[in-house]
Amino acid sequence: MVTIADVARHAGVSPSTVSYVLSGKRAISAATRERVEASIKALGYHPHAGARALASSRANVVALVLPLRTDMHVPILLQIAMAIVTAARGHDHDVLLLTNDEGVEGLHRVTRSALVDAVVVMDVELHDPRVPVLRELGLPSVLIGFPADSAGLTCVDLDFAAAAGMCVDHLADLGHTAVALVGPPAGVLERGTGFARRTVAGFEEAAARRGLRAVVRSCEPSHEAVQATAKELVAEHPEVTGLVVHNEPAVPPLLQALRELDVAVPRDMSVVALGPKELAAQVTPAPAMVPIPAEEMGRRAVELLMDKLNGRDVPDATLIPPSLLPGHSTAPPPSRT
Amino acid sequence: MVTIADVARHAGVSPSTVSYVLSGKRAISAATRERVEASIKALGYHPHAGARALASSRANVVALVLPLRTDMHVPILLQIAMAIVTAARGHDHDVLLLTNDEGVEGLHRVTRSALVDAVVVMDVELHDPRVPVLRELGLPSVLIGFPADSAGLTCVDLDFAAAAGMCVDHLADLGHTAVALVGPPAGVLERGTGFARRTVAGFEEAAARRGLRAVVRSCEPSHEAVQATAKELVAEHPEVTGLVVHNEPAVPPLLQALRELDVAVPRDMSVVALGPKELAAQVTPAPAMVPIPAEEMGRRAVELLMDKLNGRDVPDATLIPPSLLPGHSTAPPPSRT
DNA sequence: GTGAAAGCGCTAACAG
DNA sequence: CTGTTAGCGCTTTCAC
Questions:
Q1: Which range (A169-183, A272-286, B16-30, B298-312) has the least confidence?
Q2: One fold for B4-56 and B61-158+294-320
């Protein structure tokens, strides 16, 4: 193995000088710096991570706690996770992947053993058992999502309430007067997943503000369930001419179901989706949508973490403002004749 | 921080004794062991990962290289990744997550810096640039998937050829005489993804062996493409009464398309799917399928890695035998009257 | 602007 | 069966 001493010898300097060239923690003459950097390259030197962690008490690794639930939309989860890895690398950190089945104990372990020096927790629930642990962990953490009590925690998420409101506003602006929300499976709501509730709240609030009639439905992602929901909505709420869909896998079968019911999109029914932007390419007509900014969520989470690691103050809540991507799935409501 | 010296003092023994209790590398009297373990628990001691790595030159961390391509079925990727984490934890190892956009350089970095002591590479292509690097890395690695030249490498994968063959045999056993394979998007094949090609080969080989007429189609996952494929197959190959689908997201729209074409499943058309077993619960009729054993793939990969880390010999190729899960999507072909 | 040297916490000889 | 001790490779005072 190539050590810092090898580099020092090769460059004709002391090990500490090599260390300082690497860390930039003190001024080095240009000549020395160049010699050292040349030696580093020539020898293919990479500092030993363990030794560095031991001496500096900084592992330069962040933990990513990633629960795997079947009712979450997995591609988004992975997109966020990968964005976190990429962003962390940009700050010279690596990412250790933790599942939740080791439980809260896993957090204690990687923390106490100084394997990591910060933690990102994904898919946070309202009453998440990991939250109290984070508070007492004594090292920086960022949550993706909001628990019921987020006091003293740093949380990042899309502003789902505003996103739902934006969808409603879009429909209201087009002249719709009755709208429905097709939400995630009931289980997601019951489990107390914050974003699902915030979407519902934002939807209802915006509808009230705009004076629209509003209907809310949960929906399992199976083809049958979606079909049934569509049929019900059309039958029981013929006044509804605009749909907000916050349930990624339901979008293709929903459009299909509407087609079968002879409800043309967007002529008879406008549809706005809340989901990964890839969705737009997968169905016809390409839906108007509020994309879930996975990359930005990951990046912001890491930036907050780095700020905390560097002793900077950070805001408790980071709500990423939504944006509406135009599509071909919305139009003014059919005129009542 | 609680150190090994603190534990030693608390238990009235030397630090090395604590170390040996932890590692089990030499005999310890029951009395001493108990005292030490009690102290460890009492103080909440966790060995410092960096210090341990430095002294033992074993980081107890494996790298997981996870490319994120949109044309791969993401949920399966994540299932395998999580299985790897769980399995690694069972062997007292953690998992460092690497993306591929740091490139091959990332492998060098985590390896040279002794951040990890083994590597798992997922979603291997036939001519994968990571493969030559793995050969020269000088530390244990396992690939999930097979490159074109797997000599000297340790690879794990589902036996896709056998899986496709199993699907064909199932259809042949029911009396079908003409079958079609609806495969993944053309891009996956062109990119040289091994498993896609092995499925096609296994499909054709089995069809030939059983004397069946065989048709092969690539298919994009979009609703329209699937619909077009279904229409084409039915129109151009009316003799085909059995479908093997190796394209997870295409299954729901394919069944839907068949319904629209008045082709009843399984009365007029039998369908066997190759994909995650969760698929069975999502569509009606629940398809007969060969599930992709994500958990087993992850577990086997880690077991092989641990064997290599412990100097044991391991087989080059591990092909996991497929199994056929019964469903309600297959039946004898309609009798020609 | 640079060097010398004292640890960081642990493992693994070596010694008994 | 247990203790003593010399590093592992790096960072960071302290000294010049």
A1: A272-286
A2: no
Per-residue confidence band for B71, with pLDDT thresholds at 50, 70 and 90: low
DSSP alpha helices (H): ranges in chain A?
A: 4-11, 15-23, 30-43, 49-56, 74-90, 104-112, 130-137, 160-174, 186-190, 194-210, 223-236, 251-260, 279-282, 294-309
Residue ranges of the domains in chain B? 4-56, 61-158+294-320, 160-291
Query: Quick check: helix, strand or coil at residue A273?
Result: strand
Q: Do residue A51 and residue B49 have CB atoms under 8 angstroms apart?
A: no
Measured CA A25 to C1' D14 distance, in angstroms: 16
- CATH T-level assignment (fold) for domain B4-56: 434 Repressor (Amino-terminal Domain) (1.10.260)
Residue A111 near residue A119, CB atoms below 8 Å = yes
Residues 54-93 of B with CB under 7 A from strand D: 54-55, 57
Binary contact (B50, A51; C-beta < 8 A): yes
Q: Residue A113: closest CA among chain B residues belongs to which residue?
A: B48
pTM of the predicted model as reported, rounded to 2 decimal places: 0.94
Give Cα A252 distance to the centre of its chain. 23
Q: Band of the pLDDT at A70, cuts 50, 70, 90? A: low
Q: Which of residues 3-32 of B touch strand D (CB under 7 A)?
A: 12-17, 20, 26-29, 31-32
pLDDT digits (tens, 9 = 90+) for A24-52: 999 999 999 999 999 999 999 999 999 99
Mean per-residue pLDDT, A85-100: 96
Minimum Cα–Cα distance from B45: chain A residue: A112
**CATH-assigned architecture of domain B61-158+294-320:** 3-Layer(aba) Sandwich (3.40)
CATH code for the part of the protein at A160-291: 3.40.50.2300
